[in-house]
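Internal ticket #5521
Category: modeling
Description: The requester needs a full-assembly model to guide mutagenesis choices. All entity lines are attached below as received. Residue total reported by intake: 487.
Assigned to: D.W.
Attached entities:
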Amino acid sequence: MFGIVGWGAYVPRYRIKTEEIARVWGKDPKTISKGLGIVEKSVPDLDEDTITISVEAARNALARAGIDPKDIGSVYIGSESHPYVVKPSGTVVAQALGCAPELMVADLEFACKAGTAGMQIVLAQVTAGMVKYGLAIGADTSQGRPGDALEYSAAAGGAAFIIGPKPAVVIEDTYSYTTDTPDFWRREGQDYPKHGARFTGKPAYFKHVINATYGLLEKVGRDVSEYDYVVFHMPNAKFPIKAMKHFKIPKEKYLPGLVVTKIGNCYSGSSLLGLSAVLDIAEPGQKILLTSFGSGAGSDSFSLLVKDKILDVQNKAPKTRDYIEKNKEYIDYGMYVKLRKKLKI
Amino acid sequence: MVHRSSVPMHWRLYESRYNLVGNKCLVCGEFFYPSKIVCPNCRRRGILKRVVFSGKGKIYSYTIIRNAPRGFEKYAPYVVAIIELDEGPRVMGWIVDSKISDIKIGQRVSVVFRKIYEDGKEGLIHYGFKFRVIDENNQLRD
């Protein structure tokens, strides 16, 4: 029986409101904010990147797990904003956490679902007995071209999960659904991604999220109504809510994990921050369904069962909602341009 | 930005830059950061043990940098402080994630992991510790 031993979140403190971005580009703020369901999004400071976010989230996960970092046998970081093209983020993170040198490390990329891909790899390694514990992280400082629709949602944050024996949350099963769907991409050397506008919806997000979720439910032989919390990837609030309605999932089961409204889409960290927000409040015996989505495209679905041990670890690190609600500072578009290095001097 | 350090020089400092790692003399009980090779109190009778500090402490003194040196202009104004760790040693570091008005002598702080500087667009990114203000219960501030 393997699963999540410790989890941790991190979200930078700067926020920019959707209406401030809309003001600059001459759009109607209410239409944009209502359409996307995003009130504000997180913005990383000048000295923050995927590596620093990963270290902060992973330190929180270690605090909850209460294990010796040397027992972590693998570190996988999923992101589409690794600071180096060549030199793994995981090497710095593992060194900073005290896991090095006897471990496996690799950086992963699968748009917004690379973090859950890391969880599956680590779960397989732990189950096979290759490692005692493994660390999977989803983190991003995502990019949006100035004036593009993505600029309203592309945000920064991440979550980390230590997977191993005697877990606080059992990973009962996982299922993936992957096709070649060109809904969103970024070519080598390009600063910003391109996307297929409306094409990102039905043939990409909904097809993969819904099929992966059905696939998992069939695999575990359970009805979706048996789950206490459901988290879907959150490119905006509109898409996951529409997918929740497809499965007839009531609000009280998905609102605790719907973090996108206050921090935007943290890409590889998005669905995982939703999961960490749910784990912060989950009670023993509850079941959680998680389905990520990564453009390109694919979805990973997980069935989770909360154990009694969760009560011992929930308060050992800052909660996800603490990072979302506390100590935040609002910035204007000028400061946003500076912090996101959009200004070339 | 110019290259500020050689790659090997940076690499040798990973342990004490990534984490607050120092040592403690088991004879006199004093903590040291950075690590000492010999206890200055006990000399050859001292027994030094590696210690990872909790990362929590209080501001002993600070200054606000408004005219930043080359390479750090974009960060100005920023705060550099001397932090007295809970275990005793004083270390120097930036205070980030905090309003300048919240920064006071005696204020509780906690360590965070941040970029320290970048050797231009093609060079290494150097990481290390900085600090942020926390409340009296060691929690994130409201």
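Resolution: model delivered.
Comment from assignee: Chain A touches chain B at residues 13, 45-49, 51-52, 55-56, 59, 83-84, 92, 95-96, 98, 318, 322-323, 326-327, 329, 338 (CB under 8 Å).
Ticket closed.
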